[in-house]
């Protein structure tokens, strides 16, 4: 990102594609389906969609406006308006710092599946015990983690992420076509209909606080909110681009990819495991267990599977690159060290922080901070604690320090603001109140004071 000059996107479409390209990653393809499976299918989907058009829209618009108006990345952005609030920028930059290492662990798993499928071994990956025995080993997941992290580091160190981004802009439409094709294949299998109903039909009696917490955390994660990323993208946005329209398009794209991924993976649980409750609740492993079974049952599945994992790999790579690029540009700006040095430092830090996440599913499985496996612990701290705090502070900052008028002026300087009324109500009242409620709940839940 930092390689682009300020205002670097030449067109509105360029901005929308690049922002959507960075937002689409493992969050959409790996994380969304397992949360949807775990938290009641249609119930989760409906909650997510409602949050996306209210919170998601409001926060994305706010962050992009703050970025475009201040013309700087997250540290400078809050300081630009009011020095006292630069700590929000600091807190926001902690989020990528926590996410990046465990993102690389999952990136390593994807790289392993890419290698397996390209070698034509999808059949062995379709075996029930394949994933479990892979992640519980010591060396193999660490080696794949190191390979993935090294690729990300080299790309960022050489400053060639622009080239990778161009490749992924080209691959993104292919991903959409494949997702549509594979989900159509899945939903027309025997036994899939129960899965489709489970995924699409909300059961309002099943909505629990945890459904909201999981959906909100997922929204932040998937849209790269509350971590300074959208602020940085906003600072590159052309001054004359229509903000409301751009935000809507980025959100539609991101949510569309997540929806299709769920439509591919959730019914697969019903096809291959009869909707087994344990499988639905299995969490981080779901995509890796289910998709090889789908590909194994398809004609030409080994080729489709290989192409699919290439695309997931690129989606993971571009997202990991924007995470590392954010961290690297922050330390370059702050400590005036070279790009290569910053990359080496983050390679070492990320590997050190990722090791517990990787071993937490194997030999360190008995060590459970707050009762979570390490990877889930980092995921919980960033998504359920830190991001809601940053999101709350951002809302308060925009609504009561900056005032909505400043945001509205920025939007109206380059287009119409149709949902102005909704925006004001959400940013001033609904978002801060709901985020605090959710945050209190998640702290109590994390501390096991309440359980759901
Ligand atoms: N939004 C990405 C995803 O859904 O996978 C995660 C992410 C990417 C977060 C890039 C932060 C970022 F800078």
Structure in words:
The structure is a single chain. The chain has 20 helices and no strands. It has a single domain, classed as Hydantoin permease (Orthogonal Bundle). Helices cover 77% and strands 0% of the residues. The protein has helices at 12-23, 26-38, 42-70, 74-81, 86-118, 122-125, 130-135, 139-158, 161-187, 192-200, 209-222, 229-235, 243-273, 277-280, 286-297, 301-335, 339-359, 374-402, 404-412, 420-446. Helix 2 packs antiparallel against helix 11 and helix 3 packs across helix 10. It has 452 residues and is mainly alpha-helical. The relative contact order is 0.19.
List the helices and strands and how they pair.
Layout lengths: L11 H12 L2 H13 L3 H29 L3 H8 L4 H33 L3 H4 L4 H6 L3 H20 L2 H27 L4 H9 L8 H14 L6 H7 L7 H31 L3 H4 L5 H12 L3 H35 L3 H21 L14 H29 L1 H9 L7 H27 L6
The chain binds 4-fluoro-L-phenylalanine (PFF).
Bound molecules: 4-fluoro-L-phenylalanine
Report the principal-axis shape.
Answer: globular
CATH architecture annotation = Orthogonal Bundle
Q: Main β-sheet: number of strands, strand sense, barrel status?
A: none
Count of DSSP H/I helices: 20
Structural class: mainly alpha
Q: Low-confidence segments, ≥5 residues, pLDDT <50?
A: 1-5
CATH fold assignment = Hydantoin permease
Separation of termini? Answer: 40 Å
Strand content: under 5%
Number of separate structural domains: 1
């Amino acid at each position: 990102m930092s390689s682009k000059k300020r205002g670097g996107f030449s067109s509105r479409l360029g901005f929308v594609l690049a922002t959507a390209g960075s937002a689409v990653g493992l969050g959409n393809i790996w994380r969304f389906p397992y949360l949807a499976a775990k938290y009641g299918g249609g119930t989760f989907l409906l909650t997510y969609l409602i949050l996306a058009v209210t919170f998601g829209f409001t926060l994305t618009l706010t962050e992009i406006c703050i970025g475009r108006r201040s013309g700087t990345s997250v540290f400078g952005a809050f300081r630009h308006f009011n020095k006292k609030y630069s700590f929000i920028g600091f807190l926001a930059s902690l989020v990528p710092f926590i996410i990046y290492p465990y993102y690389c662990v999952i990136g390593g798993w994807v790289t392993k599946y890419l290698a397996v499928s390209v070698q034509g071994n999808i059949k062995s990956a379709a075996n029930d015990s394949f994933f479990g025995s892979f992640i519980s080993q010591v060396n193999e997941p660490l080696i794949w983690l190191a390979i993935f992290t090294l690729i990300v580091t080299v790309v960022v160190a050489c400053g060639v992420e622009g080239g990778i981004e161009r490749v992924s802009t080209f691959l993104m439409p292919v991903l959409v076509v494949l997702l549509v094709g594979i989900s159509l294949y899945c939903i027309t299998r025997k036994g899939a209909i129960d899965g489709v109903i489970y995924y699409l039909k909300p059961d309002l009696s099943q909505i629990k606080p945890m459904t909201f917490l999981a959906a909100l955390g997922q929204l932040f994660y998937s849209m790269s909110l509350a971590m300074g990323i959208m602020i940085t993208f906003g600072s590159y946005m052309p001054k004359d681009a229509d903000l409301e329209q751009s935000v809507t398009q980025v959100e539609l794209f991101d949510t569309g990819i997540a929806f299709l991924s769920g439509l591919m993976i959730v019914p697969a649980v019903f096809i291959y495991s009869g909707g087994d409750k344990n499988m639905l609740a299995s969490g981080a492993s779901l995509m890796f267990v289910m998709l090889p079974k789908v590909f194994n049952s398809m004609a030409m599945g080994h080729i489709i599977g290989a192409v699919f994992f290439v695309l997931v790999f690129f989606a993971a790579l571009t997202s990991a690159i924007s995470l590392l690029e954010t961290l690297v540009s922050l330390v370059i700006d702050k400590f005036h060290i070279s790009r290569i040095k910053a990359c080496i430092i983050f390679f070492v830090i990320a590997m050190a922080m990722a090791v517990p996440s990787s071993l937490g599913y194997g030999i360190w499985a008995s060590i459970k901070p707050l009762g979570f496996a390490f990877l889930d612990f980092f995921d919980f701290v960033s998504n359920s604690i830190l991001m809601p705090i940053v999101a709350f502070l951002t809302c308060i900052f925009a609504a009561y320090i900056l005032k909505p008028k400043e945001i509205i002026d920025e939007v109206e300087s380059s287009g119409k603001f149709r949902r102005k009324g909704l925006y004001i109500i959400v940013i001033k009242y609904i978002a801060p109140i709901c985020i605090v409620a959710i945050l209190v709940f998640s702290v109590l839940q994390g501390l096991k004071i309440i359980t759901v």
